[in-house]
Specification:
499 residues, mainly beta, 1 helix
């Protein structure tokens, strides 16, 4: 039965989304129906469509009591909003329906698992959040919370661990028809860990093992765990909070970690062989993956970060968007990411230049402009004996504003920079990454949407993501070099509808 709290949210979003113009949203990145969006939840394929749920506060473009928003798609690029799926309307989730996941049951229903949050007063006058795991079952539109909620609580976590940091369940169905789920928890040492639970039917769950302990290696608490197979390896992705930098691999604050290795089904333990960042830019957190019907592993992340979540347009009715969906693979022992191949169906108006030289200054090229663009660049030195000092591509540009990607080959450092994008907040505006380059050669693919840029380096070896809210009239693209750079350029407009 639909609660009054959920009915109110559905009525509100249906009314107020009509006030948002299409051109005031991203073209092909998923954005909140109205209000606030953060983590992707319940990313799944159900009844012939992709389903995306998301952390959602419909009443305000700022974080608030968490609901689950809901949308469906046939290609992961064109989305149809559905009514909000969950609202904080029960004693065990009265202060928020936090992140979770979805699977299809054998009887054709869809099962959601999420973290219910209940704020409890402490003796010292403060509050602590009690976090438990809860279930809801539905038909793809309406969901009913289960009577036995919460199905996992403090008695189901290892002794001495925090009941206030136990969240973000990611379920998956095993080949034998049973279910597994990983969730994050703060261990007795104050550091994050990933726990594994098992179920015969998806409704009754038992603790199996501690899959992986952080032991203060990567940040403090971990969030939003994922465990999946990819190209013959097992992969863990999670989002550590409060990280310390390690060279250019990890940065200060909240980040996203990939561990590649082997998961032992019998012991429930993960043996790590390689670790790396998932996204080297500024605005990326809390991703979730799906296995598509044709076998691809596709990742979708929140294109924002808690450290920069107030860097937004004033008086906007929505805030929060997802990355472009990314196909994952393992090559050379590391994670690679590339935009889903369906993005190429949006390409229009091809423009190509070969062997263009940019020397000690700035140039623009006819037909190379726009804010909804797929831009491919191949860089090399114009003189092999004298490698250039710096190259930059500037976009979302007018006479005052621009955002830039720059490369210094002698240090092999790629930098994203939005300090001239029009922001009036002292947020994080720059991030650097060490990239692989030989003698100044580099491949970049720049995906621009109205409010974001994603830079794919060397065919997906690394990715850097950034948001910017520069006025849409700033649509110039230019190229700068200190020294002499030879470049090949291919540009497409990206359009979701025929224009």
């Amino acid at each position: 039965m639909t609660s009054q709290t959920l009915r109110d949210a559905r009525r509100y979003e249906e009314t107020y989304e009509k006030r948002i113009k299409k051109e005031d949203r991203p073209e092909f990145h998923f954005s909140s129906r109205v209000g606030w969006l953060n983590d992707p939840n319940g990313f799944s394929y159900y009844q012939g469509k992709y389903h995306l749920f998301y952390q959602y506060h419909p009443y305000d473009p700022y974080w608030g009591p968490m609901h689950w928003g809901h949308a469906v798609s046939e290609d992961l690029l064109h989305w149809e909003y559905l009514p909000a799926a969950l609202a904080p309307d029960q004693p065990y989730d009265r202060d928020g329906c936090f992140s979770g996941s979805a699977v299809e049951l054998p009887d054709g229903r869809q099962l959601l698992m999420y973290t219910g949050v209940k704020r409890i007063p402490k003796e010292d006058g403060g509050f602590v959040d009690e976090q438990t795991q809860c279930l809801a079952v539905g038909d793809g539109i309406d969901y009913e919370k289960c009577e036995q909620n919460p199905v996992l609580d403090e008695k189901d976590i290892p002794e001495g661990c925090s009941k206030a940091d136990f969240r973000d369940p990611k379920m998956f169905r095993n080949e034998d028809g049973t279910y597994s789920m990983v969730a994050v928890n703060r261990a007795a040492d104050g550091s994050g860990q990933i726990l594994l639970y098992k179920s015969e039917n998806g409704f009754h769950w038992d603790f199996k093992s501690v899959v992986k302990e952080n032991q203060h290696r990567f940040g403090v608490m971990w969030e939003c765990p994922d465990l999946f197979k990819l190209d013959g390896k097992d992969v863990i992705i999670c989002s550590p909070m409060d990280m310390l930098p390690e060279g250019f691999e990890y940065h200060n604050g909240n980040g996203t970690l990939c561990l590649i290795g082997t998961f032992d089904e019998e012991t429930g333990k993960f043996q790590e062989e390689h670790h790396q960042t998932v996204d080297y830019g500024i605005d990326f957190y809390a991703p979730q993956t799906i296995r598509t019907p044709d076998g691809r592993v596709v990742l979708l992340g929140w294109m924002q970060n808690w450290d920069t979540a107030r860097l937004q347009l004033p008086d906007t009715a929505w805030f929060g968007q997802m990355t472009v969906p990314r196909e994952l693979s393992i090559r050379n022992g590391r994670l690679y990411e590339n935009p889903i191949r369906e993005l190429e169906t949006l390409r229009r108006n091809r423009v190509e230049y070969q062997d263009v030289t940019v020397a000690d200054g700035v140039i623009s090229l006819d037909g190379i402009s726009g804010r909804r663009v797929d831009l491919e660049l191949e860089l090399s030195p114009a003189d092999e004996e004298k490698v250039y000092e710096k190259f930059a591509v500037r976009f979302a540009q007018d006479d005052v504003y621009h955002t830039a990607v720059s490369f210094r080959p002698h240090e092999s450092i790629l930098k994203l920079d939005r300090k001239f994008s029009g922001s009036r907040r002292a947020a994080i505006h720059q991030r650097r990454s060490l990239v692989r380059s030989e003698n100044g050669r580099l491949k970049l693919r720049l995906i621009l949407d109205r409010f974001s840029a994603e830079v794919f380096v060397n065919d997906g070896e690394q990715v850097m993501t950034i948001t910017m809210y520069t006025d849409q009239a700033a649509d110039r693209i230019s190229f700068f070099a200190d020294g002499a750079v030879k470049m090949n350029v291919v540009k497409y407009d990206l359009i979701t509808d025929a224009e």
